Amino acid sequence: MQDRVIKFVDKNKREKLPIRFQELDNQVREYFDSTKNNINHPESKWIASTIYMWTKTTPLYSYMYLKYGNKEYKEFENWAKIAPLYRDYGIELIKRYPWEYFRFFLYPNLLRYFIPPVEYLQNYNSGADNVQPIAEFWFNYKSNKINSIFKDLSINILNFHPIIIGILNIFFIMIIFSNLRIFNPKNSQKKLAIIVFSLWLLNLTFSIVMSPIALRFQVFPSIILTSFIILYLERLYYESMVR
Predict the structure, then answer these.
(1) Are 51 and 43 contacting, i.e. CB atoms less than 8 angstroms apart?
(2) Half-sphere exposure of 242 (CA within 13 A, CB side)
């Protein structure tokens, strides 16, 4: 994902990278230069998305195919082989273009963390009315055609989840930072608060720094936050009753 940093760097400011990265870097630059403002590539306007990582016409795929071939059954093995180079290339770009990395990756990711996009989960079966042959065989379907009990394939109920997760995160921050007595050694909830806060902080850091944000990645953390908030409110209610 950090490879997208080069997309936002002005051509005149691009630096020459070490020899081991030059072939890959040339492909990345050529790709972004050719797709910029191209009506056939609307994804070029997206920021901090997953499409660049999983689309087979992008440099990460094409360079891997160039080095190790494009046999589908060896794809995971090839990803593992090429991963160290991609990691080092991404780190090199971050070191050379820290401002672009912050502006076009970290900051958009921070905003998305509080209101994560639904992405393809907004449509049942990603909007397709059929499944792959392997799924048809595995589930013993009569055909590869599928249908929904709803009029269309839209999953409208998920549209509210990003807002709910945003509220949970804000409420959690308010609890932690406006009521610091939760960390008082005499407070029975101290250990639980520290564990939950540490988990939240680690997830926040990893998500913003290393990973594109999506609703499906934040479901488990949101369950943890919900459980903690319920326990905290219960504690407040109990304390108010015994006073």
Answers:
(1) yes
(2) 6
Q: What is the pLDDT confidence band of residue 38, given thresholds at 50, 70 and 90?
A: low
Which pairs from 220-228 meet CB under 8 Å and 24+ separation?
A: 222/164, 222/165, 222/168, 224/196, 224/199, 224/200, 225/168, 225/169, 225/172, 225/196, 225/200, 226/168, 228/172, 228/192, 228/193, 228/196
23-61 residues labelled b (16+ CB within 10 A) or e (exposed)? ebbebbbebbeebeeeeeeeebeeebbeebeeeeebbbb
| Cβ atoms of residues 124 and 153 within 8 Å | yes
Write out pLDDT tens, residues 198-236: 999 999 999 888 877 888 888 899 999 999 898 888 877
| Token pair listed for 132 | 């792959």
List the structure tokens of 139.
């589930």
Buried b (16+ CB within 10 A) or exposed e, 171-188: ebeebbeeeeebeeeeee
* 48, 1 Cβ separation under 8 angstroms: yes
Q: pTM for this one? A: 0.73
pLDDT one-digit tens code per residue, 135-150: 888 988 888 888 777 7
Give the Cα separation of 192 and 7 in Å (integer).
43
Q: How far is CA 121 from the centre of its chain?
A: 13
